[in-house]
Amino acid sequence: MAMVHTGGPDGVRLHVQRLGPGRAGPGGSGAAPTAVLLHGLLTDSLASYYFTVGPGLAAAGIDVVMYDQRGHGRSERPARGYRLDTFVGDLERLLDRLGIHGPVHLVGNCFGGTVAFQYAVRHPERVAGLSLIESEPATPAWAAKLDRMLGDTETQLSEHEADALAWIDAHRGRHTARLARSAARLARTTTIGRDIPSSAVLDEDRIRAVSGPVLALYGADSDMAAQAPWLESLLPGCRTVIVPGHEHSVLVEVPALVLDHVLGWIHDPGRAASGSGSRRVEAAP
C-alpha cells in the first residue's frame, strides 16, 4: 500500500495497492502480465476489487495494480479537476511513476471502464486488452446521462442528505452509510458534478480506432446491456457477455463469474479475433 504523487498540474496523490508478482522486465514488460483495475464513481473505491476479483487475479500470477481515483477512497480530493481527461492523465502518470511502460490489461467497472477506454484511444500501444464491466465509452449520450445522474445526486443530497443517510444506515448497514457519506462530501465539496458531464467525448470514428481486444460484461437487467450490439458493430475485437438475472452490480454479485471471464481474457485476448459476438451465460449461484 502506498501513496503515489502523480505530479501533473495539480499534483494529486493517489492511494495504490499492488498484488501479485510485481515483476517487470525491460521496458515494463515481464513474465507476469499487468492488470490495472479502475473503479466507478462516488461510492466506489479500490475496495470493490480488493474484495472481488483482485486477489483471484493475483493468485493466478497477474501483477495487479489497484488505486483509488482522485476524490475517492484514500486518494486526495482536490476541489476541482474532475473531467474525464484528468482521470486519464492520472492513469498515465501513475503508470509512469510505477515504472510500468509495457502494454497493460485495463479492467474498468462503470466509470472506470470509461476511463480505461479513453486511455486506450489515447495510448493504443500501451494497452494489451480492455475488460469493461457495466461500462461504455464516453459519448454525447454518456455525458447527458452522467449530467442527469450527478445532478440528481447533488440535488437530493443538498435537500435531504441527513434523512437519506439515516435511511441508508438503518436499511443498508453502517458500511454502506459510510460510503454514502463519502459520496455526499465528494458531490458537495468538489466540481465533479459539473466537470464530468462537460468532458470531451468520442464520436464513432474514434471509438472504432480502438482495434485491440475488448471484453464487455453486462447484467441482463441493466440498461447498460443495450450497449452490447452497438459495441460489437463498432469494434471487431469486441466480445460481450450478458449475465441473466443481474443489474448493474455484477462485479459484486457474481465475482467468480467476472473473474473467470476477465482472467480468460487476459490469458487469451486474441480469441476475440476468431470468436467475437454477444454471448449469454448463466450467473453463478
TrEMBL record:
Entry keywords, A to Z: Hydrolase
InterPro entries to which the protein is assigned, alphabetical: AB_hydrolase_1 (IPR000073), AB_hydrolase_fold (IPR029058), Carboxylesterase_BioH (IPR050228)
Name of the protein this chain belongs to: Alpha/beta fold hydrolase
Organism, as annotated: Streptomyces lonegramiae
AB hydrolase-1 domain boundaries: 36-150
GO molecular function, one term: hydrolase activity
